[in-house]
Amino acid sequence: MHQSDYPLSEVPTGARKGLLSTSAVLLGFTFFTATMWAGGTLGQAFPIGQLLWIILIGNLLLGSYAAVLAYIACKSGLNSVLMGRFCFGEKGSKLSDFILGFTQIGWYAWGTATIALVLVRTTGMPEWLKIPLMVLFGFGFCVTAMIGYKGMDWLSRFAVPAMMLFILISLFTGLVDVRGFAGLSQQTPTESMSVAAAITVIIGTFISGGTQATNWSRFAKTPKIAVIATLAAFFVGNGLMVLTGALGTMIYQQADIVDVLIAQGFVTIAVLMLFLNIWTTQDNTIYNFAVAGCNLLRTEKRRLVTVGGAAIGTVLAVGGMYNLLIPFLVLLGTFIPPMGGVIMADFWLKHKGRYPALDTAQLPDFNRRGLAAYALGAGAAYFSPLLPPLVGVAVAAGSYAVLLRVNHATLSDSLPSIAKQ
User: Fold this and answer.
1) How far is residue 61's CA from residue 199's CA, in Å, rounded to a whole number?
2) Which residue has the higher pLDDT, 191 or 217?
3) Residue 299 neighbours by CB under 8 Å, 6+ apart
4) Which end of the chain has a smaller Cβ tally under 10 Å, C or N?
């Protein structure tokens, strides 16, 4: 823990990582239980042939969005919250810090509670152990995040291949049980869903994560490595999670790989999968909270913010508030992607593909154009009946492009702070 992963500055050249390291960390992030549950809803609504095309298209769109942000992050060495200073202003960026940080601490509470509840149910432990287990895992899972990129890299290099093996074992067993593709083809959908809604579900599961994956893609040695690693995680990895949930539902009426492994008789593997799946997402989640918190508070003490976030998440889990937070967190997922749209437009249109050094840049307190474009994108996403996340990104980017050409005083980049008036 000798360094703090540059929470308020660009990642220097000497700290950049290769393809294996970057891919492992990002894949560990996208191996997420909730994504499999989303896949389960698709497995109930579509025949296998159509399902495969929907998963392909949905994850290609998701992966492309995340890869574009990964390219910008690698070129600049900045993550999304630091890039937010350029497109929202020094004080205006605190809005994105709060939204990004709040969603992550909510998901951390959900993951902390989930592993304790599932472990008690799976192993037959006494019910009174739920709260002690939440406290144990709430602080235990943040250790690798406290170490930083190196800690998550170490965990992911072991966990990702292991989880991949467990998933392949489960998928092979499931295909044998259902008599292969022919058996899957005979499965009849029990629910109805439009193709557009299905693609929205796939994109919506992790587009907020794609917006914050810049925390690790900025460590890539080259933009090419950043793009390949991000596509591996958000196109291939997330796609595998959706497919696993869909097939589990079609074959066993269980979307979660842990429940499927138990149904297949692999209890030990199921417990290992539970630990690795939750841990590799939890440490990434609390790391996201920490970098957003560091930018919000303008502090370099990332490890202290990490522990503080873990404490808040644990309290929410123990208090049972995680159940109330989930619908709100999903709603916030609609408001996060437009930030990515503003970042893209700001990087290429205003800064011509190169940010100035953050420590010497003269930035306004509030960038009215960026904030207005974000508000328009978030509103469009909220009211859009079709692909809300992508609509939010497109409207935010397009609005920012238009506003850059408006030279009216009320739409100037800077809005003076109260202290200056």
Assistant:
1) 9
2) 217
3) 7, 8, 293, 305
4) C
